[in-house]
Here is the input.
Amino acid sequence: MKELKSEYQCAIDLVIEIIGGKWKVLILWNLNEGVKRFNELKRCMPGITQKMLTQQLRELEEHGLVSRIEYEQVPPRVEYVTTDLGKKLQPTLFEMCKWGDMYSEQRGIHMNRCWTTYDFMSN
Here is the structure.
């Protein structure tokens, strides 16, 4: 995992270090909908490899944004859930989603999938 520095230029720099890249924000967004198993997450993100998903989940877990829940059963079952700290990012992710919808509409860009409805924020 990429080690965090002891000092950053500003808070945005730190946030980008923690959730930056193509997959982490999408993982967190998909976990907004609730607990998911590894393969459920993988299906939600076409194009991500198993290795990359594993790496990104480990980093999010190490930074305290995602919890890995292991069930002692046969076959083994593992689920992922957003932590309380990770849930604090939901309003920001929600605003990013709204902005993306507005931008795509203005530019005539078609969305293949609606990630979730906006009413989850009212809960």
